[in-house]
Amino acid sequence: MADLELRQLVKRFGEVTVVQKLDLAVAAGEFVVLLGESGCGKSTTLRMVAGLEDVTEGQVLIGGKDVTQAHPMARDIAMVFQNYALYPHMNVAQNMSFALDLAGRPKAEIQAKVATAAKVLNIEHLLARKPKELSGGQRQRVAIGRAIVREPQVFLFDEPLSNLDAKLRGHMRAELALLHERLGKTTLYVTHDQVEAMTLADRIVIFDKGRIQQVGTPGAVFNHPANVFVAAFIGTPTMNLLPARVGAQGQLSGAGFTLPQPGWLRERAISGIPAIPAIPGDQALTLGIRPQDLEPAADGPLALQVDVVEYLGTESQVIGRLVGSGAGGAAGDLRLVATLPGDAHSLIHQTVRLSVDAERLHLFDTTTGATLRL
User: Fold this and answer.
1) Residue 125 burial by CB count (10 A; 0-12/13-18/19+): exposed, middle or buried?
2) Hey, how many other C-beta atoms are within 10 angstroms of the C-beta on 307?
């Protein structure tokens, strides 16, 4: 096991820059997930680490050694692909042992490593089968087993669960978490699925347009998003983002609501950090409210005209229009989502009043999108 470091990594295809001066350090044994939408540069970054894409600028270091120009086979990494990449004419055991055969390892050693990996992945009974005789989940286990037998310093995963159905993805997520706990290998994992990222990662690296937007633990990126992009990207349903201002009495006002100012914003002003001006109309900001933080309250400051209810068994996603009056006037065109307990179908076409703990509010600079909570 070794650490992994990316220094000022850049990748260009012609005049298009898809990865822009990326710096990232992954500790030995850490599970780090690169998360972002399709085309954001995360898979290209992984392929540069693997040596499958040339690096335009910057360095890739594994265990402190510069491998930027090294052949993929010389990097001591193992990669698991989205499409499994199994040889159809070989059985499971042959697929798993192929790299070791090429390296000229003793037959007894190869058999022992294949047997050990098969036991870890619970595919001992599949060793004689061909890939066409396997389910999608079984094929992915074989692909992972092929990586395990090589005993690399670093594991690389490129969207390994995206071809599986939802139930099997959930099962394989748990399998991967247990596998990492057992092996303790340094792992770089690419996905566009935030559930995978939140449940597997020690740290998440959130990408957008080839740049890192935030690096942090799952709890940090969810509870303390660095900017509007991260706030809107992390969380299901997505965070409610509303235009607002700080009023003369310190309250947060917008179209259809007036909310108390969170204590952390007042502390920011007292500490001497430049604060949002406490004069109405001086500065607009973006107010963020997680749907899970909204609660029904008879005298709540937010009034929601419910249009749609999505019942999920233990809770409901309630979607509607923010109504009422406030600093910005009528708010009939602002949408709001709230996560409420139980079956909320009785609220359709009704107006429900909601409250939120001021300390759970998120505030962002309207111009830069950066968080105001330092």
Assistant:
1) exposed
2) 12
Q: At what angle do helices 107-121 and 136-149 cross, to 10 degrees?
A: 140
Distances (CA, A) of 288 to 129, 202, 293, 324, 373: 52, 25, 11, 19, 12
Asked whether residue 172 falls in the same domain as residue 303, the answer is no
Average pLDDT of 332-348?
A: 90
Q: How many domains is the chain built from?
A: 2
Q: Give the Å distances, CA to CA, from 86 to 67, 142, 147, 179, 269.
A: 26, 8, 12, 20, 59
Q: What pLDDT, in 10s, does the model give residues 17-73?
A: 999 999 999 999 999 999 999 899 999 999 999 999 999 999 999 999 999 999 998
Confidence of residue 242 (pLDDT cuts 50, 70, 90): very high
Q: Strands, E, within 56-170: which ranges? A: 57-62, 65-66, 77-80, 154-158
**Residue 29 sits in the same domain as residue 76:** yes
- Indicate if the pLDDT at residue 329 is higher than 50: no
Listed in order, strand segments (DSSP E) in 180-314 are 186-191, 203-208, 211-216, 240-246, 252-254, 257-259, 284-289, 295-296, 302-311
Alpha-helix residue ranges (DSSP H) falling in 154-296: 166-183, 194-200, 218-223, 228-233, 263-270
Q: For residue 149, what is the domain's CATH number?
A: 3.40.50.300
Mean pLDDT for all residues in the chain: 89
